[in-house]
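Below is one record:
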Amino acid sequence: MDFQRIIQYIPKIFRNRLDEARIRAMTASYDLGGYKRIYLVHIRKTGGTSLNHIFLNLQTGDSASLYENLARSPDHRIICGDKVYVGWNVRYINAGNYFYAFSHTPLHELDLPEGTFTVTCFRDPVKRVISHYNMLMNFQVNKIDHPCMAIEGKWLGNSFEDFLQRIPEEHLLNQLYMFSARFDASEALARVAGLSHYFFTEDFARGIDELNTKTGLNLKPLHIRKASFSASIPEESIEKLRGMLAREYAFLDRVRNMRKDMQQDGTPDRQLHDCPP
């Protein structure tokens, strides 16, 4: 009797323990420029999905299938080759037994283990919020049953103005909130300074090159465009939005200056279900 048939007779609890032991053994050997794992602080609509696909492409070159498997997996964890990927599962993320993981959970709500390479990507705040609106409109217009629509679909109303009135502050100012529950720019800046790497979408390719240098990986830049809907938004609404985002713009100005200072003085960023056949 082969191993697969034998294991069917082992009670589920013991199978789970065997799976966890296998994953711990597999991930113990990871060495990513001195780090044990990589975690993406995935700020929505800032290029994080592209970054996820870039990492998934390391295995089969078919990131779309792997991402779908990860989303469909009950615990949002997959094993592909010698790599363990985790998405959205905070318990697994805090445990640290993975090659690459990501979630939309604010950094201040996580307890990442030592040796985690942390990375994030920022974007112009107005462009990010408009992209979020276009994504939701795309789901609505094309009747796409995305899980986020149960809550976020209610923000749309009948216009972009309705959206601006209804979107919660933690989503409007998400780039700031991901690093400070109090929307405190100084607190958020301190957390960003503690990241292993961060960059902006307008400098995406360079950010990936720097990521390769720091981790010893060979990641290839790509862009995943998801929403086909593009709203026509009046200029006065854009200016209103810009004013609503003033705190986030001020925060990101400080982030840019911090990154620029590190690049100028040479200071590095802060150091330290199986795939288909």
